[in-house]
Design goal:
- By secondary structure, the chain is of the alpha/beta class.
- It is built from seven helices and eight strands; from the N terminus they run H-H-E-E-H-E-H-E-H-E-E-E-H-E-H.
Length: 175
């Protein structure tokens, strides 16, 4: 039995990812040319776990593309997304913690060519965006959108009661 079967991953989700599971730091699963929805994740296992937990939302998995970028977004990731998915729905699937929120903000700012700067000071985050300063106790892309009035048009997905989707999937098997 392979690892995906041990996690009780549905056969259609396994078959979607298996051709792409190779030891590469950054990878794409799905056909970028056909995909309507692009999911940007930190890791392969979180991409797989997210789809396992949410595959029932999508009738046709060929409309999906997953790109993993690691734990630190860079401008070259945004350039790749801009060149290969210019009119696609973007979804960010990063961890449900401060690091995940920082990934959401940095990658969104790169993809939309809207520079921002995030600093930490006295139990809050300070965000410099569009020549304005915003302060947040809890950092999120949604909080910045509400405070600034700018819509990045990127959906973020966060696991419930866990830090990562892999952790949520693993916990599903412990109950």
């Amino acid at each position: 039995m392979n690892y995906l079967e041990e996690l009780d991953i549905q056969p259609n989700v396994r078959s979607f990812f298996e051709p792409y599971l190779r030891d590469r730091h950054h990878w794409i699963a799905g056909d970028p040319a056909l995909a309507k929805d692009w999911f940007i994740c930190a890791s392969k296992i979180d991409a797989l776990a997210w789809l396992e937990l949410n595959h029932q939302r999508y009738r046709d998995l060929t409309n999906l593309c997953f790109l993993t970028i690691g734990a630190v977004p860079h401008q070259f990731h945004a350039a790749f997304i801009q060149n290969h998915a210019p009119k696609r729905k973007l979804h960010f699937v990063f961890s449900n913690d401060d690091l995940g929120a920082l990934c959401d903000l940095k990658l969104a700012s790169y993809v939309r060519n809207k520079p921002l700067k995030v600093t930490w000071s006295e139990n809050s985050y300070l965000v410099n965006f569009e020549n304005k300063h915003f302060e947040f106790k809890l950092l999120s892309l949604n909080a910045l959108e509400k405070a600034s009035g700018y819509n990045f048009r990127i959906r973020t997905h966060k696991p419930k009661n866990t830090i990562t989707y892999y952790e949520q999937l693993s916990n599903r098997h412990r109950t």
